[in-house]
């Protein structure tokens, strides 16, 4: 009887060891899968997140706030620098945990030097650029004055923003592209059940590379690429993102004809709600991980 009891204890011990090891293997496999496939790294995490698509005319400026943390993506044109600084202050921003200058075009970094001089910054992201303009040089001068280190993110590099997460989805921040727009740093932000895709001014060529990489880009809200231009926002890309809502950051009666009709036809085919800064001004989304609300209703005119 003692031998049988001893055997049972030994069997039980090895069973517990096996289950523990299996659990650890399962845990590590799950973590590896999230890193390797780029799936929603915040599917179990949620806090309070607000995403502000700030009306800066024919330009981009997006503020993301989550649990007391702040991320700024672009800063509008030169003429909007004071507007951007004041808007950030009105939202209680005294420190920017992360700043992403998507690429060197003036409608994305024109106001960035003013932001750098007015707010302390934790991490500053910028692609490797050879684009030499006065506005871009102003940014580099401000970065040097404030002794800020420029970080070139790797593909699928991920960061926490409170309980939210964001992941870089554009393939290579070090590579030089013929089209400066394709240097744009693109990210997917997740908070619980909700996600936002913001990819600057990338073209169809870069959209194709992102699709080829198989990184997970499905999102509830998508900022249309390149202000709704027809050189971007391919049907394959839009279909893969499959957004419930799209946001157009463009100026009233702009000289580029943004958004282009062909793109709006694709959005209609998707049956996605449309928000437009040229018609509605600044638009703010709020997520608690379960419920997603917006400061305004979708634009009915399209």
UniProtKB/TrEMBL annotation:
A Pfam family that the UniProt record links to this protein: Lactamase_B
Name of this chain's protein: MBL fold metallo-hydrolase
InterPro entries: ComA-like_MBL, Competence_DNA_uptake, Metallo-B-lactamas, RibonucZ/Hydroxyglut_hydro
Top-level taxon of the source organism: Bacteria
Alphabetical list of CDD domains matching this protein: ComA-like_MBL-fold
Organism expressing this protein natively: Sellimonas caecigallum
Domain Metallo-beta-lactamase residues, every copy: 58-252
